[in-house]
Amino acid sequence: MWNALVVTPLAEALKFLAGWLQSLGVPYHFGFAIILFTAIIKLITLPLNMKQLQSMKATQELQPQLQELQKKYGNDREKLAKAQMELYKEAGVSPFGGCLPMLIQFPILIGLYSALYSLANTVDLGSFLWIPDLGFPGRTDGISWLFPFPPKIGWGPALAYLVLPLLTVITQLVYQKMAQVTPTSQDAQQSMMNSMMMIMPIFFGYITLQVPAGLTLYWVVSNIFSIIQQYFVTGWGGLRPSAAAVPAKAGGSARREPKAQVVEKAAEAIPAAPTGSAQPQEAAPASPTRKKRDAKRRKKR
Question: What is the pTM assigned to this prediction?
Fold first, then answer.
């Protein structure tokens, strides 16, 4: 059932694209077929992916209100959940709006994993740029091709195969950082999320050491498309340094503070204008020195 609905159609689609590119004289036709296949999948799921990103952005903008609700209701989970759902409803945001694209991606990844193994047994997937074989490592290889050192396939091929897993970690980390909400406080939940953000790309990188290079190529290209989509929704997002984290900006604001204090003190020193009902204040009596000076002026006149 699974093979008939997912694995076989994916394998046939890749074979068709590879054959078409080969007929056009394109080198590394199977590698470019995987890239083209990835682009088609991302194009088909573009509306869903954009909806997911917009939902994530809207949810991030609600973080201050959500934190206030957590402070207000504390350990009362039932009231907190009800208040959160009311907030989501008023803002027109679904907390589960980003789940559908991920649910679509996982069957494709798993199906492509099986499809590449199936194709590797029947056709030669060939090399791609610096990658010696898109069908390597095999299903039974695991990470035995790399460990223990020295690699049994030699350092040259091993380093060539390590490039894509490294790119997987980098692109996954960039994407997750761009999508990260700007923290308003370093609470335990935020610290845990930041830790997970660092661990997950490394975990994905470890997985890609054990799957065919063709699947890792799909993963990297998919991440690049996701980064581009994320940029058009949130810009660089969490990759931008916060104002508090930039010393130059912090120093600039510190230099402006004394000036603001001087202006504020000057404003406080100005006496308030007398109201209509207030009695006019009597002038202070003139000093003797001033009287003599005024008398001399009158004589000159």
Answer: 0.69
